[in-house]
């Protein structure tokens, strides 16, 4: 008989407070449930959190307990785990990371054999097996899985990615912020390999300083260090990139996608003149694509949805405003690969990033997060629906309103775009106030 099933997976795997919500027992059980019906081997990478070795060991043990061999990739970006899983024909790639979350949190996400995140059906199947009371298939004797280490994982990843660069990086100089996270060793190794000159900041992880005032969620840090140069900021697992131009202005995922789309269009390489974005993309991005004659497929939030739409349409540019960018291999966000591509555009066009970014003008956008007791049933709340509808009528075609639940935290997110930041903030505060009174 099965226990009552609870959804563990959010939009980016399973996350929680390490050793409180996300315990070694849960990590073991997730891996055991994922590995029980399959064979082969699994590759595991992690970021620099203090809890990483504890949880990665539990994941490895869970797989071993059902006869699955594990290859430890060490501290390495998410994009590298995806690529090395694909290259080694692994049954799964597993990343132990909570991405941009603080050091106290951690997470586990699974990649399929093709390097993409596993789909909803696979996640639900793992949860069903995890919640099943029946004894699981325990491997014994020579059938127990073994653990090995891929000591050259960074080098293998960098060798593959560096081959995708078509223009010389010699003479290019920029600053990278590795968020004291998974890219602290891989990023400088990769950029030095392709001939770029990089200054590296936030590359001294101590287990608790990941994302602490640095990285993609704090682009002002790399902007200050760049001092007139281009800056590149990654998040904790380095699947995102947020850049800053020579004037210190933020170049987010929407702007990066617009730059890539225009560049590929001019080269005749934008397949079907189509890009993929999410509902969070700035209205200015949509308007810029319309001016260029480029079609935009809009998906729900989550790079898995972007991947699905790109594969169906054949699009070679897609991503999220947050800096998850998908390129030709249509696998997963890889901040290091995105940074290389952005510098490739700079090198091939001879233009500075501050000029390239003028392809689009962003509407002021305000994002307000409301902490709630429970996200259940928020869409059916009449007061919230009424406040949202009133805001949409007020803005009309001048802006946009989006209210959605976070996939990883107990939050309702309110995003408003308007002609001015003050108007957007006013509308967002009004809706947030209603949500807080109803659900907080």
Which properties best describe this structure?
5-stranded mixed sheet; 440 residues; alpha/beta; TATA-Binding Protein; Alpha-D-Glucose-1,6-Bisphosphate, Chain A, domain 3; 18 strands; 6-stranded mixed sheet; 3 domains
Describe the structure.
- This protein has three domains: 138 residues, Alpha-D-Glucose-1,6-Bisphosphate, subunit A, domain 3 (Alpha-D-Glucose-1,6-Bisphosphate, Chain A, domain 3, 3-Layer(aba) Sandwich), CATH 3.40.120; 204 residues, Alpha-D-Glucose-1,6-Bisphosphate, Chain A, domain 3 (3-Layer(aba) Sandwich), CATH 3.40.120.10; 75 residues, Alpha-D-phosphohexomutase, C-terminal domain (TATA-Binding Protein), CATH 3.30.310.50.
- Strand 12, helix 9 and strand 13 form a beta-alpha-beta unit.
- The chain contains 14 helices and 18 strands.
- The longest helix has 19 residues.
- Strands 1-5-4-2-3-6 form a six-stranded mixed sheet, with helices on both faces. A five-stranded mixed sheet has the order 8-7-9-10-11, sandwiched between helices.
- The radius of gyration is 22 Å and the shape is globular.
The CATH level-2 architecture of the largest domain is identified as 3-Layer(aba) Sandwich
Specify the helix fraction band.
Answer: 25-40%
Q: For the CA atoms, what is the radius of gyration?
A: 22 Å
Helix/sheet category: alpha/beta
User: For this structure, what is the CATH class of the largest domain?
Assistant: Alpha Beta
| Inertia-based shape | globular
Count of discrete alpha- or pi-helical segments spanning 4 or more residues = 14
Total beta strands: 18
Strand order of the largest sheet: 1-5-4-2-3-6
């Amino acid at each position: 008989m099965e226990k009552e099933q609870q959804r563990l997976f959010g939009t980016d795997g399973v996350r929680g407070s390490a050793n409180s919500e996300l315990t070694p027992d849960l990590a073991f059980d997730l891996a055991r449930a994922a590995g029980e019906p399959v064979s082969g081997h699994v590759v595991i990478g992690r970021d620099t959190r203090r809890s990483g070795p504890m949880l990665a060991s539990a994941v490895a043990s869970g797989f071993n307990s059902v006869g699955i061999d594990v290859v430890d990739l060490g501290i390495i970006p998410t994009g590298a785990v995806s690529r090395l899983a694909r290259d080694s024909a692994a049954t799964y790639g597993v990343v132990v990371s909570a991405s941009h979350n603080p050091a106290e949190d951690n997470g586990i996400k699974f990649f399929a054999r093709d390097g993409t995140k596993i789909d909803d059906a696979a996640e639900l199947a793992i949860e069903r097996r995890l919640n099943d009371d029946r004894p699981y298939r325990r491997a014994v004797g020579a059938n127990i899985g073994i653990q090995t280490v891929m000591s050259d994982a960074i080098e293998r990843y960098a060798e593959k990615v560096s081959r995708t660069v078509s223009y010389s990086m010699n003479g290019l100089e920029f600053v990278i912020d590795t968020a004291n996270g998974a890219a602290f060793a891989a990023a400088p190794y990769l950029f030095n390999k392709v001939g770029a000159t990089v200054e590296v900041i936030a590359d001294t992880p101590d287990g608790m300083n990941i994302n602490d005032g640095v990285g993609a969620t704090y682009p002002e840090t790399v902007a200050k260090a760049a001092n007139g140069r281009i800056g590149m900021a990654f998040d904790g697992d380095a699947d995102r990139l947020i850049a800053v131009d020579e004037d210190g202005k933020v170049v987010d995922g929407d702007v990066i996608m617009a730059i890539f789309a225009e560049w590929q269009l001019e080269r005749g390489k934008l397949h079907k003149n189509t890009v993929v974005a999410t509902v969070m993309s700035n209205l200015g991005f949509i308007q810029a694509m319309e001016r260029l004659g480029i079609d935009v497929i809009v998906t729900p939030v989550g790079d898995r949805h972007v991947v699905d739409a790109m594969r169906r349409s054949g699009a070679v540019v897609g991503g999220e405003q947050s800096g998850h960018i998908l390129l030709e291999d249509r696998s997963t966000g890889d901040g290091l690969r995105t940074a290389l591509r952005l510098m490739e555009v700079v090198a091939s066009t001879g233009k500075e990033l501050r000029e390239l970014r003028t392809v689009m003008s962003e509407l002021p956008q305000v994002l307000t997060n409301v902490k709630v007791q429970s996200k259940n049933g928020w869409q059916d709340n009449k007061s919230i629906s009424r406040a949202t509808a009133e805001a949409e009528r007020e803005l009309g075609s001048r802006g946009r309103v989006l209210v959605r639940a976070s996939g990883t935290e107990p939050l309702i997110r309110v995003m408003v775009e308007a002609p001015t930041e003050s108007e957007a903030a006013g509308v967002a505060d009004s809706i947030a106030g209603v949500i807080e009174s109803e659900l907080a």
